[in-house]
Amino acid sequence: MKQEFSDRQIEIMEAAMEIIDRRGIQELTTKNLAQDIGLSEAALYRHFESKHAILLGLMNHFTGEMKDRVVAIASKEERSPSELIRDIFLSQLKTFVQKPAIVQIIFAEGIFQFNKELMQKVADMMEMMQQQLERIIKQGQQDGSFRDFAGPSTLATIIMGSMRLAVMKWKVMGHKTDLVKDGMKVLKGVLMMVEKSVKQAV
């Protein structure tokens, strides 16, 4: 079930994302956040009990939006399996460019490694994507458009791993590279290994 947020909570989460974007996730503190939005820390705590609660709210908000978006794309029956995978990751990469703070949160395992809720939210997000990709890959293998040298789970993991590496490189480079262009280039290379050529399919 998608979590509902009040207007004030959404305002706080947007301000938190702004801090993460401009100064990094390490600078997201309740003190800095309260100062940026003109609230006392006590007033802030009436909406979120801690910084981790704010991060969890951001992850819940993003995961809900991501699931709706990915499932909607994956449900387009008129698109081929390859097109569905390209559409999903194009959407993901564009979203990361628009909301780079989410990338910092997802890749901040070291900061919240002892917070089981946050770690579980990242795991849930990855599992949702894994399941969607596996279903599409299975469909592609059944209709003969994908090779079957490995199972859907393995191929989905390979695709997700390659895209994760592209996003990590973009993050490390300070968002100075073209994530959409570079990420889709990597995906194209991976899909070329998975897709059957017309000659092979005959």
Termini, distance in Å? 45 Å
Report the major sheet: none
Q: Say how many strands there are.
A: 0
Which band does the percent of strand residues land in? under 5%
Poorly predicted regions: 198-202
Brief summary of the model shown:
With 202 residues, the chain is an all-alpha fold. The chain has eleven helices and no strands. Residues 198-202 have low confidence and may be disordered.
Write the layout of secondary structure elements.
Elements: H1 7-23, H2 30-37, H3 41-45, H4 51-74, H5 81-98, H6 100-106, H7 109-112, H8 116-142, H9 152-172, H10 179-194, H11 198-201
Helix pairs in contact: 1-2, 1-4, 1-6, 4-5, 4-8, 5-6, 5-8, 5-10, 8-9, 9-10
Walk me through this protein's architecture:
The chain has 202 residues and is an all-alpha fold. Helices cover 75% and strands 0% of the residues. The protein has 11 helices and no strands. It has helices at residues 7-23, 30-37, 41-45, 51-74, 81-98, 100-106, 109-112, 116-142, 152-172, 179-194, 198-201. The longest helix has 27 residues, at 116-142. It is elongated and about 60 Å long. Mean pLDDT is 88; it is low at 198-202.
Q: Which characteristics define this entry?
A:
11 helices, 202 residues, mainly alpha, 75% helix, disordered C terminus
